[in-house]
Structures are given as structure tokens and as C-alpha cells.
Write a sequence for this structure.
């Protein structure tokens, strides 16, 4: 590894031209992917050394990057529609199935709990089988559960079906994983924010879509108790259609599909036990688990309870309450990408430390507005508080996934899975503590949930990267530990490094130098754009 | 962003419309006179009634104990199906409220007839959309402006006697079940087909 030290032969030439394959050391000729002289020429967008796109063009459907983005967020959007499809129809369902408030609350907890396990599993599936299969499995294996709402006859059936439908929220992980392998680190927070935000919008759209579908079916002559069951066929059918599209149009990695690349030796197959161990061993994973539980978690809880809250407390009509509920979810369209963009901007100026500060600020401010929402006793103030709360919390979700891709390269999928599972865990926990009993009124529950979120956002101060620092600490001054390569190659054993299995991580480490603050990057390392080495 | 602004604006408009309701008179249940006598006789006794099938004979008239001009203000009689306390347990959306405009315990309207001084009756088929639950029947006497001035119910004041149970329709249908199974099989099947096809393609490529 002599070539990693500064000043050694060859390092000053790194990144001098934009079109060279930049590796820290020579690699086996057999694992090169070159079919033509310039492999980056076949991509529609400019790419980096890992063939990840450096530019984000949301209106394009170019293969493979933008196509993966659109398939990813649409899959996730469809799953959100299915998971929360019951929420706006609860007034009909609770009469048909003779449900009590406890039954409704428990079904709400069940609808988000299933995904805790499926998101974990999805992380592993993505690492081992690729994002395409992960997404397709999630969509097409849960579509039958959506159709089986037609069989529910009581509280137990309703709970069981909502629990099983909730499994499809695993598409969140496959969607974020897919974009993380397709897009460069400099823009990853914005891309992940758009994909996540536009997917989350499904939770808002469903509050408008399902009542509309229900009305149309009723006008066609069905009784209400049959119409809501038929209405569930719409999200189910959407899932199947999108699943087929993902399988036919999608591609796992910029260079091709995972199984093809693995067979050609271009991507090494990894062992699940290793992937799992390095994800679990990393303490940052668990901090992200908690953080996401109190940004996305409370967002999921609100999706389940806010319509009923406005209906009961302010005596709104069902349709009006539905519009309010939809507004909360629809804010995701710009709020989450904004969070991602702010994270990328902060990274450009302050590096990873900026990303961590932005995350803390957004999440805390959002939680404070949640406290205010619970205290508001007039309708306009409540709506204002709710909108500010939605922007803060959803931006925090976007900012968090600006940090997550850098926690690990080897276990990227599993960490996305664990973080995503944390979101659902937080939602189940807050619904259970604050909204399933008559101990607190819903208003008090909202304020208490906000207070708990403020407290549980404090741990972000403890996320420390030796190469980039943390909220309050500078990066390590140790020569070796302050290198990105050291951090990412520490996930591989010496034996594996000798076999060269960690090449992907080294490439990633090179590209992640963007997370150094601008001051540090200019001071001791030549930037590719200037191309002028500080010492020859 | 435009969608966002539109939704926000419609919210503000709706909320201001909502808050203007009930600005004038407030009808309280405790202010009503119990001057109507209501009876409900089913055609089938001692069984749970089926929504959409069973018939009930409902009669209402001024109580014999009522004073002479008690019914002077009555214009119409509204007969409603109300939830018994047992069907309200742990269901705050069916809560009884003294303020009649906010009361949610009598949501199902049976009939609304102009008041006639003679006893009136009706053969009512239990509505198909009636949910499963335990009920009693109440009649409100409303004045010219539509505000309730008197009431009567088939049960006692504590709503413990003369209650009847209704079994709602399930909403399930064989055709729905079959469609559900067909779509599910299609979903599984297409996934399997794709997996098999891709495995075969990968094997062929490897052999090359």
C-alpha cells in the first residue's frame, strides 16, 4: 500500500485528467470492465470512476442512472399508497368490521411494524442480489396481501392484512440503495432526497386517491361495505404493474446487472455474515437508527393519526380532514429534496461536519413545531404549525440520507435497511406510547412525541468520522487514520485485502474526498478541477 | 410548489367556512321535552336483525301524559336509529354530546315526516348500510326552523331496555374473492417467470 502515502511516486498525478480510471494501486487486468477504449462514453450522463452519475437530470429517463431513479421512487410511492390506503377509509372500515379505537390504533401500529423486519432483510437482499430484485420482490410478493383485504371480516383480519401490506415499505431501502450506487457522492443527498421525498408523497396522495376511488365505485352501484374492498384492488394492481416495469426496464448497477457482473468477475460476491457484522459493529448505524425513528417515524405516525385528529378536534368534515392529511404528506415533494440539497450544500462548504449540523437543526426545529401543533387550539394556527413541522421533519429525513451513504461502503445496503427499519420502529413506538390508549388526548400525544423527538435527536452530536470530524470535534490529526481509504478499508480483513476484494471500497474512498471541508481540501490536496499539484 | 399553495389556500378557506357554522342557536338535548312515545316492534322476535332484510314496525305519537299544547311547535318528526351505550364503548366517533349539532350517537336517519296529531307508524326495513351494533330508536320533534324541541325513544332514559342488535352485511362477495386470488396468482407467477428467464439468460451467457 505504499502508493497511499503522500508524496510517494504517482500520487501527485491522481485526478489530473477527468477521463482516467483513477485507482490507488494497480488492479488485475481480468477485472477491468473495458470493452471499448473509453467506457464512460456509453453513458448519457457524465460519470465518475465508479460509473456513478455526477449530474442529476430529473426530467430524463436515460439508461441506466435516471431510469433507476424513476423506477426507484415510483416503486416506493406505490408502496406508500398501499400501506396507508386504509387510513382515509377508516370511518367506513371501522363500521364494516365493528372496530373499536384500540383495534384501529393497533392496526395502525401493525401497518408500520412489518417493515421493521422487511427493511432489514431488504438491506441484505440488495447487497447480495441487487436492487432490482429487491424492489420487484417487495412489490410483487406483497401485492397479494393488498388484494386479500377483500377477505377481512373483523379486527384480527384487518390487523393481519395491514401488517402484511406493511412489509412492502422495504422498497424504501432498495430505492435508496439503487440511487446510492447510481449517483456520485457530491449529489447523493439531493438525489436520495428527491427519491425518498417523492416516494413519501404516496402517503399524502393516498388520502385523496382512496376516497375518490371509493366514491366512484359507490356511484357505480356498490354498497359502501363492498366498495372499500374493491378500492383496494387499485393499489394492488399498481404494484404489479410497477414491479413488471422494474424487472424489464431496470438495471442493478451502472455497468449491468449484478448476476452478470458477478459471473464475469467484475463484482465480487460478498458474504452475508461479513456484511451484517460490519454494519452492526459500526456504532453510527445505531445512532442513525434512532435519529430516523424520530424523523421518518413521527412522519409515519402522523400519516395514520392526523386526519382523525383534525376531524375530531376541529370538527372538520371527512373530506376537509383528508385534504389536511394529504397536505402533510405532499409537502414531501419539495421538503425532503430540499433537506438533501441543503446537506449537499453544507458538505461543499463544511464537509461532513456541515451535513451533521444541518441534520440536527432540521430535525430539532421540526420536533419543536410538533410540540406547537399539539398545543394549538385554533385551526389556522394548527395548520401553520403542521406545515412547518412537516417541512422540518421531512427535510431532516433528506439530510440524514446525505450522511448514511458514507457510514459504510461494504454494508451500504444493510445500513440503509437498518436505518429504514429504525424509522418504522420509531413510528410503532410513538403510536403505541401516545396514540393507542386513552391516557393522553391526541393533542397531548402530539406534544409529547415532539418533546421525545427533540431529546432523541441529540445523539447526532456523537457521530464522529476520523477523517472528517463530527459536530464538535475536528478530524483526526493522525496521518493514517485521517485518510478516507483507512476508514473504508478497515471493513475488510487483511486476508480479503490481499485478495483485492476491497477495490470497490478504495474507489469509493477516492470519490468521497468531497466530504472534506473546503478549507482542508484546498490546504493539503490538489483538487482535480485545478489540476495543479502542490508539490511534484 | 403550486400544488402546495393551492392545498394550503383551500385549507384556509375550508377552515373559515367550518368555523362559521353553529354561530347562532345551540340545541341542547337536556332542554328537550320527552313528550313523544316511540315503540318499535320487529316482525321476528328474539333474533338478531339482519340489515337489508328484517322489518320493524315503528310507531310514534304524543304521550298521553303530555300537556295540551306541547305539540304546538312541532312541524316535522325525524325518526333516527341510535347507538346503545354498549356500541359506543371505545368508539369516540359515536360519542353522545349534549349539544345536538355535535352529537354523533344518532347518525342513521330512518324517516322524516310532517307531524300529524294522530299516532303515526311505519314499516321500516333495516337499511342495508346499517353497521353491526346494538341500537334503539329515537324520534325528534323539530320546529319550523329545523331545531329539535322534543324527543321520544323506544328505550328508557338510561338506554338499557328494549335494545335490539343488528347484523350488518359483510361486504364480501365470491366474485371479489375469486378476482383477488386471480390477481395474486398473476403477481407471483410473473415474478417467477422473470426469475427463470433471467437465470437461463445468465447461464447461456456464461457458456459463451
Amino acid at each position: 500500500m505504499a502508493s497511499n502515502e503522500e508524496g510517494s511516486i504517482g500520487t501527485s498525478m491522481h485526478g489530473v485528467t477527468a477521463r482516467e480510471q483513477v485507482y490507488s494501486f494497480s488492479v488485475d487486468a481480468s477485472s477491468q470492465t473495458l470493452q471499448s477504449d473509453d467506457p464512460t462514453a456509453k453513458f448519457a450522463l457524465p460519470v465518475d470512476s465508479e460509473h456513478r452519475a455526477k449530474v442529476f437530470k430529473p426530467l430524463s429517463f436515460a439508461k441506466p442512472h435516471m431510469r433507476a431513479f424513476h423506477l426507484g421512487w415510483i416503486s416506493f410511492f406505490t408502496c406508500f399508497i398501499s400501506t396507508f390506503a386504509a387510513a382515509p377509509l377508516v370511518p367506513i372500515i371501522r363500521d364494516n368490521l365493528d372496530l373499536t379505537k384500540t383495534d384501529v390504533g393497533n392496526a395502525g401500529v401493525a401497518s408500520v411494524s412489518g417493515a421493521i423486519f422487511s427493511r432489514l432483510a431488504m438491506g441484505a437482499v440488495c447487497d447480495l442480489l441487487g436492487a432490482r430484485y429487491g424492489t420487484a420482490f417487495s412489490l410483487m410478493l406483497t401485492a397479494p396481501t393488498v388484494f386479500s383485504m377483500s377477505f377481512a371480516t373483523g379486527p384480527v383480519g384487518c390487523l393481519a392484512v395491514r401488517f402484511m401490506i406493511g412489509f412492502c415499505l422495504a422498497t424504501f431501502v432498495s430505492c435508496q440503495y439503487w440511487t446510492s450506487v447510481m449517483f456520485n457522492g457530491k449529489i447523493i443527498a439531493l438525489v436520495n432526497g428527491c427519491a425518498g421525498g417523492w416516494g413519501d408523497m404516496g402517503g399524502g396522495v393516498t388520502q385523496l386517491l382512496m376516497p375518490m376511488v371509493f366514491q366512484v365505485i359507490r356511484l357505480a352501484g356498490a354498497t359502501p361495505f363492498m366498495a372499500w374492498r374493491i378500492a383496494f384492488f387499485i393499489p394492488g394492481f399498481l404494484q404489479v404493474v410497477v414491479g413488471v416495469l422494474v424487472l424489464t426496464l431496470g438495471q442493478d448497477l451502472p455497468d449491468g446487472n449484478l448476476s452478470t457482473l458477478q459471473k464475469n468477475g467484475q463484482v465480487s460476491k460478498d458474504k452475508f455474515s461479513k456484511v451484517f457484522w460490519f454494519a452492526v459493529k459500526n456504532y453510527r448505524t445505531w445512532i442513525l437508527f434512532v435519529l430516523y425513528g424520530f424523523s421518518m417515524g413521527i412522519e409515519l405516525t402522523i400519516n395514520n393519526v392526523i386526519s382523525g385528529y383534525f376531524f375530531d378536534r376541529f370538527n372538520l368534515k371527512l373530506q376537509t380532514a383528508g385534504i389536511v392529511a394529504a397536505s402533510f404528506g405532499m409537502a414531501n415533494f419539495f421538503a425532503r429534496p430540499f433537506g438533501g440539497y441543503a446537506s449537499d450544500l453544507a458538505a461543499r462548504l463544511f464537509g461532513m461536519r456541515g451535513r451533521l449540523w444541518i441534520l440536527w437543526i432540521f430535525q430539532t426545529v421540526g420536533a419543536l413545531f410538533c410540540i406547537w401543533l399539539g398545543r394549538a387550539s385554533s385551526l389556522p394556527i394548527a395548520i401553520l404549525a403542521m406545515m412547518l413541522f412537516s417541512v422540518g421533519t421531512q427535510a431532516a429525513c433528506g439530510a440524514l440520507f446525505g450522511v448514511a451513504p458514507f457510514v459504510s461502503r461494504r454494508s451500504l445496503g444493510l445500513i440503509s435497511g437498518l436505518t429504514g427499519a429504525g424509522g418504522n420502529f420509531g413510528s410503532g413506538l410513538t403510536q403505541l406510547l401516545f396514540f393507542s390508549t386513552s391516557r393522553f388526548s391526541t393533542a397531548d400525544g402530539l406534544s409529547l412525541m415532539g418533546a421525545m423527538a427533540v431529546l432523541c435527536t441529540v445523539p447526532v452530536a456523537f457521530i464522529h468520522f476520523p477523517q472528517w470530524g463530527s459536530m464538535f470535534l475536528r478530524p483526526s490529526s493522525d496521518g493514517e487514520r485521517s485518510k478516507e481509504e483507512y476508514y473504508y478499508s478497515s471493513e475488510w480483513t487483511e486476508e480479503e485485502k490481499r485478495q483485492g476484494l476491497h477495490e470497490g471500497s478504495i474507489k469509493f474512498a477516492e470519490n468521497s474526498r468531497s466530504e472534506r471541508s473546503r478549507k482542508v481540501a484546498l490546504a493539503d490536496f490538489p483538487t482535480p478541477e485545478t489540476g495543479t499539484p502542490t508539490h511534484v | 410548489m403550486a400544488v402546495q399553495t393551492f392545498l394550503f389556500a383551500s385549507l384556509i378557506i375550508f377552515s373559515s367556512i367550518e368555523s362559521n357554522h353553529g354561530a347562532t342557536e345551540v340545541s341542547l338535548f337536556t332542554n328537550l321535552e320527552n313528550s313523544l312515545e316511540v315503540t318499535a316492534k320487529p316482525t321476528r322476535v328474539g333474533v338478531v336483525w339482519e340489515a337489508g332484510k328484517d322489518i320493524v314496525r315503528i310507531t310514534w305519537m304524543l304521550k298521553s301524559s303530555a300537556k295540551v299544547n306541547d305539540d304546538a311547535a312541532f312541524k316535522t318528526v325525524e325518526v333516527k336509529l341510535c347507538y346503545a351505550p354498549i356500541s359506543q364503548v371505545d368508539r369516540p366517533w359515536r360519542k353522545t354530546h349534549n349539544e345536538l349539532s355535535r352529537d354523533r350517537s344518532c347518525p342513521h336517519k330512518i324517516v322524516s315526516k310532517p307531524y300529524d296529531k294522530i299516532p303515526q307508524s311505519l314499516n321500516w326495513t333495516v337499511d342495508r348500510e346499517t353497521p353491526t351494533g346494538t341500537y334503539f330508536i329515537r324520534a325528534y320533534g323539530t320546529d319550523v326552523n329545523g331545531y329539535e324541541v322534543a324527543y321520544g325513544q323506544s328505550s328508557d332514559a338510561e338506554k338499557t331496555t328494549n335494545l335490539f342488535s343488528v347484523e350488518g352485511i359483510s361486504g364480501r362477495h365470491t366474485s371479489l374473492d375469486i378476482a383477488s386470488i386471480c390477481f395474486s396468482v398473476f403477481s407471483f407467477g410473473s415474478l417467477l417467470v422473470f426469475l427463470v428467464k433471467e437465470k437461463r439468460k445468465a447461464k447461456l451467457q456464461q457458456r459463451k
